Here is the input.
Amino acid sequence: MNRPPSPLTMLLSRHTRRRDLVALLGCAPVAWPLVVCGQESPTLIGFLSSGSSEAYQDFLAAFRRGLEVLGYAEARNLVIETRWADGRSTALPALAEELVGRQVKLIAATGISSALAAKAATPTTPLVFVSGDDPVRFGLVASFSRPGGKATGINLQTSALFSKRLDFVHALALTGRVAFLVNPSSPEAPPQLADMQAAAHASRRQVVVISARNDGELEAAFGGLGDQGITALIISNDPFFNSRRDRLVALALRHNVPTVYDRREYAAAGGLISYGVDYRAAYREMGIYAGRILKGSDPADLPVQQPTKFELVINSKTANALGLTIPPTLLARADEVIE
Here is the structure.
């Protein structure tokens, strides 16, 4: 008489079938059923910004598009850990350390402050940056053509454009004093001040430096423009200001001061004039560089890129609100006129 198999025999039989099936499929039994056969874990990278998430979403999207050119996409084979300092540069070292602790394969950094924090946090993790200031002057790379270390990226030449922005003030027939707004707590402030002073000297314009490092100081800075006889304002490239874009535009309109900015997003938000590079294109290039490094390229051999095209955007509606007439010659030079 045949006896039915014992519970232990049935359990062992099921285990044997499962083991044989796993071996047939080529997966380790310990990975069942969490890992699909042949599927690799996604690549983890970091995105460190001294700005805010809200202000940089378009740029982050452009960075993703650049990565996709090299075959990297979220929800498929890529995870991007983002860290935002919201204009507080003192928070960057801890945020960079967090990314290093997550063992990211690469860090993408926006601005000199973020890039310096990332470089200080790890000497071995590749770094790709977008910077408005000279990366050689700050020690991020040895040279533009041969970075020579673990860092490379895109230099936006922001400081070199101050003379052009002063030209636009002159074109508007604003003959009084010009103010230059800087964040004194930012490492970018000293070189930008030097570049602006050189541009002012060359154009024989008097430029008054005003500073703000928080929202309260922003209000006070704009409130004092009238007492100083300021007829125009130029905003420096700074993560704190970039994260307060709408606030800056509103303050300029409230105090009736024509203002020149460094990027199109200000003009689109109601700012009078912007002149600078196409930031979306720059962040897409940063994504392409990140993808190339993940594919095996050495950052030391990837030259720091510089833009060749700059865009002038004029908001004619804001000009009307300020009581300004934009000269036809200046309108003809504009890449975009916002009605």
Notes: The first strand starts at residue 43 and ends at 49.
